[in-house]
Write a structure and sequence with these properties.
Blueprint lengths: L8 E4 L5 E5 L7 E3 L2 H7 L4 E7 L4 E4 L3 E6 L2 E5 L6 E6 L5 E5 L14 E2 L25
Parallel strand pairs: 3-10
Antiparallel strand pairs: 1-2, 2-5, 3-4, 4-9, 6-7, 7-8, 8-9
The structure holds zinc ion (2 copies).
One zinc ion binds next to loops.
């Protein structure tokens, strides 16, 4: 299992209007196969990493926000539409960013798959990583 990064990260949307900086990741990154991420991104799975909300700085245009389910907000670029973040009221001190929005996405490698219960028949990777039906912590 790869170790969480100890250094700060930065990223941006496709068009560059929204840029961000944040502190090191809190946990190893994951691939999410849930329906909500699939529809929000237009594909599946979506790679996510998690950082402390207090460490996040946005630069340039403010991202737009969509409440995708109760207690959940997703931010994206209002110009090019790149999905950027996921915030849950259940984890108020944390925020998740899309792996693909990193300036150096090769620096973070997902270690498992979550919400496989939602995964479509063509969305069952054979990469040998652990696959969880729901979240990592679900029974
Ligand atoms: Zn953009
Ligand atoms: Zn998801």
């Amino acid at each position: 299992m790869s170790q969480p990064l100890q250094t700060a990260l930065s990223g941006r949307c496709l068009c560059g209007a929204v840029r961000y900086r944040c502190a090191a990741i809190l946990y190893p990154a994951t691939w999410c196969h849930c329906e909500s991420c699939r529809r929000a991104s237009g594909t599946s799975p979506v790679g996510w990493f998690t950082v402390a909300l207090a460490s996040v700085e946005f630069h340039g245009d403010a991202p737009r926000t969509h409440r995708s389910s109760q207690g959940v907000e997703r931010r994206f670029c209002g110009i090019c539409g790149t999905p950027l973040t996921y915030s849950s009221a259940l984890r108020p001190t944390e925020i998740d960013f899309t792996l693909g929005s990193l300036d150096e996405p090769d620096r973070v490698t997902p270690v498992d798959h979550i919400w496989m219960a939602d995964a479509l028949p063509w969305d069952h990777p054979a990469d040998g990583l652990p696959q969880h039906a729901g979240t990592r912590t679900a029974p």
